[in-house]
Amino acid sequence: MGLISSLFTWPLAPMRGVIRLGELIQEQVERELHDPAVVRRELETIEEARNEGRMSEEETAQAMEEILARLTGPPGEEGR
Q1: What does the pLDDT read at residue 74?
Q2: CB-based contact 25:17 (threshold 8 Å)
Q3: What is the pTM of this model?
Q4: Best label site of 38, 51, 59, 63, fewest CB within 10 Å?
C-alpha cells in the first residue's frame, strides 16, 4: 500500500517542499521580530536618530509605538 500511495502523491512532493519552505521562512521572521536583541537595536536606532535631529518627537513616538505594538500584539498580526 505504501508504494501505491507514494506513486500517487509523488507529483505533489515539490509543492509540499515549497509549502514547508514558506513555513520555515515565516517561523524565522517571527523569531527575528520578537528577538529582544533586534528590538533593542531598533529602539537604539530610533533614539540615535532623534538625538541627531533626523526624527521629530512625533516620528519617534510613532516608531516606538509600532515596535511595542508588534511585541504586545497577537502573533501573526505584524504589519497589518
Answers
A1: 63
A2: no
A3: 0.56
A4: 51
